[in-house]
Amino acid sequence: MIVLETLNQLTQQLGLPSAVALYTKTPAPDTYLVITPLVDTLEVFADNTPGVQTEQARIPLFTRGNYLPLRDRITTALLKAGLTITGRQYVGYEADTRFHHYAIDVAGRAAQPSSVSPWPAR
């Protein structure tokens, strides 16, 4: 998954702790990201053969501090990496953990190799 690999590299470059699907390290740091794969679609063209794979993921940001500068740093890094931001939203403040929760949805495309078909041979 191209998008997942890119996101893992970006979180390392930004120096932000992250995990895929579920952050389990305890105690949790004051700021961390969870990368959640959402959808992989194969775009079909006139010959009914997939030519492009679109991958989408959600990046929940959890922080006890001001999320705005982090949101902007992450957004800039995502755009520089060639990913498309499909949505950003403040999810809410979690009073029990004292974390702000902010989500960024991204999409990226990878060319589907013409020699590999997801369709069964006939």
UniProtKB/TrEMBL annotation:
Recorded superkingdom: Bacteria
Protein name as catalogued: Uncharacterized protein
Biological source species: Cutibacterium porci
